[in-house]
Amino acid sequence: MPILNKLVIFDEQNINDSLKKALSIEPKDVVMEVRESGLKGRGGAGFPTGTKWMLASSANSKQKYVVCNADEGEPGTFKDRVLLDEYTKLVFEGMVIGGYAIGANKGFLYLRGEYRYLLDKLNSYLEQMRKENRLGNNILGTNFSFDIEIRLGSGAYVCGEESALIESLEGHRGEARNRPPFPVNTGYLGSPTIVNNVETFASVHIIIAKGAEWYSKHGTSKSTGTKLLSISGDCKKPGVYEVPFGITINEILKLVEAENTKAVQVGGASGTCIPKAEFERSISFEDISTGGSVIIFNETRSMLHILENFMEFFVEESCGQCTPCRIGNVKLLDGLKKIRKGECSLSYIHELIELGKSMQIASKCGLGQSSPNPFISIMTHFENEIFSQR
Q1: Rounded to two decimals, what is the model's pTM?
Q2: All domains in the chain, ordered by first residue
Q3: Which tens digits make up the pLDDT trace of 23-62?
Q4: What's the DSSP call for residue 106?
């Protein structure tokens, strides 16, 4: 699947020397270049990448690690798969640059179990990098050595959260850790570790090649650069699109030729449902943040059915470690089943919305903190429609 509507990041012209350029300057200068670009994590959390790398770089440890989170488990998201398949160079060399910047000599690509079919191709590319001296000992004739190993996940949604991912890398059950300490201080095997999304590492490659000033001219002042969106659902042209931050929902709908759109789910199952009245809102960290999923629903879709699907997913994927998530998601789903049977009052739904808000605060990791998002947003915007289906 090609990336459509290419704008900035994935035009591969003039980026072949990015790794060589990075290794020709001081590691601290690489970190500052990333920081000055304004790049924020492309996995959805939006933490400033330069700040994360600075913290890991300044950590006092002989051993440090780089982890690329390719556990693309959010329903409706498939842009990282395209990057790994078609823009492998950007991702792997971005990891090498990250290792140089923080002083690490080992990296891991944590690959979603369902992407096993990419494993041979990715390992072959790593071997080619070693032959070309872009990976391994004394990379490109420098004193810097770095290697990458691919580890397969086993399909657990919770392992998309960085500390649960690290637990899995260490051979343990995928469960979120208590924080602090954070991975930049105490990560893989207790050592400082940076965990970044596939798209983040690819973006770093471009930033080093073309400069922070050039990069930061795109997007908005608080959301620099562009964003890859996995767009699916009721539209004529689904696919992976590169768009500038600040693009509105209406502009996206025109781009993919969607008609009679009722709602747009931004951020996958754990994201926010945007009704037609709010289609002028924008994709950005200051408005609607997303890891990359955009699912379009037209007027024929039942919002109750959609919401039931989302909540069934979260009940299934909850690791069960913390009470708000383990019990809360079940309660939210039970409420929807009661609506379907005509046994649920409006006042009880409002109580469940408040439960969802409590889950957002009290849950241990991003799964429980974000799983109430679709319930709250869909029930808020489509309450009349949902209750009319009883």
Answers
A1: 0.94
A2: 3-216 (3.40.50.11540), 226-298 (3.10.20.600), 305-388 (1.20.1440.230)
A3: 999 999 999 999 999 999 998 889 999 999 999 999 999 9
A4: E
